Amino acid sequence: MPLDEALGIAPYQQHSEEVIRLGCLFSLVMPYELASWMLSQWSGLSVSAASLWNWVQQRGQQVQAELMEQLQAQASGAEVSPDPLEATLATLPLAIGADGVMVPFRPTPKTAKGKIQWREVKVGILARLGTRLTQAGVAVPKLLHHRLVAVLGDIDQFIPHLQLEAQRQAFEAAPQVIWLSDGGRGFWRVYQTCFSHCAIAVLDFFHAAGQLARATQALFGEKRSAQARAWFRRWRYLLRHGRTRDVLRALTALLNSKLFCGTALDTLVQVQAYFQRHYRHMQYQQFARQQIPLGSGMVESACKWLIQQRFKGVGMRWSEDGFNHLLLLRLAWVNQRFESLFPHVPDPPTSYSPDR
Q: Which residues contact 335 (CB under 8 A, 6 or more apart)?
């Protein structure tokens, strides 16, 4: 880059650890060009966006190598040491969820030309489930001690990463483990593989209600008439208030009535099978009494602020390496492991990570 050349800065030239750390931090939360400008405003140093990109790649490669070693050790049966956890947090239930988010990638390496390729990033969140009081004095769930996992890959690649973080969070020792997800079969395979032996599983209520909306469409041919809306509201109410068995029986009775055919019948078959498959995961009144969240909003929110806020800006398209290395640094930052990448830099006055 011309600016680097003018300053005598080579792409991999060693700078002070303090400056590299700060440049990486800026790059975690904003585009490289803006991060370059912010660094110059804060420090008076002129460091190009290309140099910031190189710093992120170097530190990201370091994190990636360490992660691969940890995953290999886990696969070989080595014991995973849990992270330190405050005694009060250790007494709280552990909530775990997973979801996917699409990210735009370049079709050809080292060029932005061509049509965007959209690829899914699997995101997992593990958080201790506390409570807080609303202004009305009602106790509602509050998520504490968040830890995130994210993988550009399929479910089989995602599972070891989530297992590793679950071991770090001592999930087997948690007084209660709760799995929260929508109806995606891949993520329920994650539950079956990793947590079915110890976790209460909750199907996101809003996705379950969405299946009732599909059944409403099949029954009435549309969803906007007063009769259709009344039917939907009634069955959604029953579902939310402990009448899941009644809802399933009603769907089964509709199938057996032989009043439907074609697309309507196909939809009712799918919805009935969905409710049957997730019957144990839809005990929403019981979950609410236990102060267990009924929705997967915690992981949907994580997808937004971990991935969308940084990787889906206007005009952004990523290479696989560029994405992965920056993602690993964002994960280190969010999971409060970023400072360990700069052992020679004095600890900052505050160690910030998103309070999510």
A: 147, 148, 353
188-193-197-198 Cα dihedral, nearest 10 degrees: -70
Q: Which two tokens stand for residue 280?
A: 């144990």
pLDDT value, residue 91? 95
Q: Name the residue among 247, 284, 283, 282 with its Cα closest to residue 268.
A: 247
Counting beta carbons within 10 angstroms of the beta carbon of residue 160, is it exposed (0 to 12), middle (13 to 18) or buried (19 or more)?
middle
Contact 344, 17 (CB under 8 A): yes
Helix 320-334 × helix 17-29 angle, to 10°: 100
> Would you call 156 exposed, middle or buried from its count of C-beta atoms within 10 A (0-12, 13-18, 19+)?
exposed
The DSSP-derived string for 153-170 is: S-HHHHHHHHHHHHHHTT
User: Is residue 177 within 8 Å of 167, Cβ to Cβ?
Assistant: no
What's the whole-model pTM score? 0.88
Query: Taking a C-beta distance cutoff of 8 angstroms, is the pair 320, 105 a contact?
Result: yes
In eight-state DSSP terms, residue 138 is: -
The strand ranges marked E within 193-232 are 199-203
Contact 55, 36 (CB under 8 A): no
> Which residue reads 């329920």 in tokens?
188
pLDDT tens-digit series, residues 83-93: 999 999 999 99
* Residue 35: CB atoms within 10 Å: 23
Residues 6+ apart with CB under 8 A from 241: 284, 285
Query: Which residue ranges in the chain fall short of pLDDT 70?
Result: 1-15, 348-356
